[in-house]
Structure formats: C-alpha cells, structure tokens
Amino acid sequence: MFVRRLTLIATVAVLLLGGDLATIWAQNPKPKPKPAGGGTAKRAPAAPTATLLIKSDMTALVSMDGEPIKKRGNEPAAIQPDEIVRHPVPLGEHIIEAVTLDGLDKWHEVLAVDKVGQRVVVVELERVREARVDKSDRSKERQAANAAQIQRDAEDKAKNEQRERERRIDDRRKADAERIEKERAEQKEADLDQRARALRSQISQLESAADRADRRADDSRQAAEQAEREAERYAASGNAVSASLSRTTASFARNAERNAKQEANDARTKVRALERDLSSLR
To answer: Same domain for 196 and 230?
Structure first.
C-alpha cells in the first residue's frame, strides 16, 4: 500500500511538471503481488491413509477394489494362512474380495475405513467352505433320501405289481376251480339223470314183467281150475285115465301159477329196491 501511494504521488508530480507518464512507468514498474502469507507457495497436504493387516484362514487370492493385494511380478500371488500382508488404503469405503485357489469358495466384505492407523482384516474362507460343504452334504443327503424314496417307491410298485399278478393268478385259479366244480356238478347231474332214467326204465320193465307174470298166473289159475273140474267130472263118470290126465294138467297149471306169482313178486321186490335207489338220487 505504501509503495502504491508513493507511485501515485510521483505520477501526479510528473504530470504537474509536464513529464512523460510512460517514462515514469518505465522507470517505476508496477510491483508484483506477493504470495499470501508473505513467503513461497505451500504444497497441498497428502490424503490420510490407513494400513490394513490382512490375514486369511486359507490359501487365497485377495484383492482390494479389484486390484490384487499381493503380486509376484505382474501376476497375483496367494496369501498363505500363516502370512500377514500390510496394505495401505485411503480413508473411505473399500471392497475386499478373496477366492480359494480351486475357485470353489469366495468371500467378500465392504470395509468402511474412517480413521488412520492399523486395522485387522481376517478373510474367513474356512467358514465359507464349511457352509458350502455342509450345503453339499445336505444336498447329498437329500439326493440320497430322494434316491432311497425312489427305491422304496419302486419296491412298493414291484410288490404291488407282484400282488396284482398273484391276485390275477388266484382269480384265474378260483375261476378254473369254480368252472371245474360246475362242470363236475353238471356231469354229476347228468350222471344222476342218466342213472335215474336207467332206473325208471328198469322199474318200467320190471313192472311190465310183473304184470305179465300176474296175467300168466291168472291164466294158469283158470287153467288149473278148469282141469280140476274136468278131473272131477271124468272121475264121476268113471273115466280114470282122463281124470288122471286132467289132474296132471291141473297140477302143471298150479305150478305155473305159483311160478308166475313168484316171478311177479320178485319183479315187484326189485321195483321197490330200484325206487329206493331212485329216491336217493333226488
């Protein structure tokens, strides 16, 4: 400010005296402004950082915000379970990811780093693997249970089919047995009917024979009576020879009568026996 005032005063003086303003400005160049603070310009302070102490419970490839934490040359390197890796990060949110060398188990976590200093990060892949194996075991158990159920269903189906086959076989056997029994009954009925017809025919024949025997007996009786009357008449007339012949004829007729009656009785006895047989068939 003081220099400005001196410059302004000198300028006014030159103008009053008729001097050249350009010459005056050339002789008194305008001073350059000084940096704030009076010294040289200060450099901007570095952003604060924190240090992560990273440990993994399994051998794994670990990355922070998509970049490998550990490298061997230009290639990512695995962190061993007995190893602790120090990794600086700026304050703020970061994503740390880890994957096992076989690629089966993965882990990640969002880190909110809000202050400088050290922070421990434990990569818990063992728990991820246990959960996967447990899930796999449960899946295998379910598969085994499903397979066992399928096997049981197949066995039940086979048993049901076997029972159905046995039932059909039993039904056929029963049907065959019923058919055979029916055929036997029908055959028995036919045999009985045939037997009955034979018995009725025999009865009819015997009854006819008895009737014929009765008629012969009656004829023999009449012939015997007539011969006996003739014998009496011849004896009364003194014709002994004719009387004797008539008595012989009467005797033959009486024998024939008795034989015919016996024949008739025998026939009727057989008829009664056959009738009993016929009644037992019914």
So the answer is: yes
Distances in Å between the alpha carbon of 175 and those of 53, 180, 193?
Answer: 89, 8, 26
Mark whether 210 and 270 lie in a shared domain: yes
**CA 186 – CA 14 distance, rounded (Å):** 165
- Please give the pLDDT value at position 34: 52
Listed residues 82, 116, 131: the one ending a domain:
131
Residues 62 and 99 occupy one common structural domain:
yes
Domain containing 64: what range? 49-131
pLDDT in tens, 95-125: 999 999 999 999 999 999 999 999 999 999 9
Please, which pLDDT band fits residue 73 given cuts at 50, 70 and 90? confident
Q: How many domains does the chain have?
A: 3
Count of C-beta atoms within a 10 Å radius of residue 110: 8
What is the reported pLDDT for 18? Answer: 46
What's the full length of the chain, in residues? 282
Q: Which two tokens stand for residue 159?
A: 């048993």
68 bridge partner residues: 63
Sheet with strand 92-100: strands edge to edge: 67-68, 60-64, 92-100, 106-113
Query: For strand 71-72 and strand 75-76, is the pairing parallel, antiparallel, or unpaired?
Result: antiparallel
**Alpha helices (H) along the chain:** 2-17, 21-27, 125-236, 240-281
Tell me which residue has tokens 């075991």.
Answer: 137
Place 141 in a pLDDT band, splitting at 50, 70 and 90: confident
Distance CA 192, CA 67 (A): 110
- Per the structure block, which two tokens stand in for 219? 């004829």
In angstroms, rounded to a whole number, what is the distance separating the alpha carbons of residues 233 and 247? 11
pTM: 0.41
Distances (CA, A) of 170 to 118, 166, 184: 86, 6, 20
